[in-house]
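User: Here's a chain of 132 residues. Predict its fold as tokens.
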Amino acid sequence: FTLNTLDGNPVSLADFRGQKVLLNFWATWCPPCKEEMPDMQSFYEKYQDNGVEVVAVNLTFYEKQLQDVEEFTQEYGLTFPIPLDEQGEEKENYRVITIPSSYFLDENGVIQQAHIGPMTYEFMEKAMEDMD
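Assistant: Prediction complete.
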């Protein structure tokens, strides 16, 4: 998929071929999403230079206003790519029913594991290690 970020730049999942990817679907009003974001940011900071990418797709069509997403990313200090699913197409493509939902993709873009609900830092580490 290719989606735009808050600053209008396109992000394509294909851009991350050759890297392991933690693909997350979330919304600003979701308590479990808020719970996992600090761990996801810490995970990203540690592993971004080691062939691991975090892509957190905001389910923008569920948000009251786009400004909520901007404020959330600033409040949590998020620095990984946050594509906006404004039409809900990727939610449907990935069959996301509950949020947060996360997928662990290998270097070829193949889903190796799916996880519904919030994740801890330790869970993210283990899921990535399990792909080795």
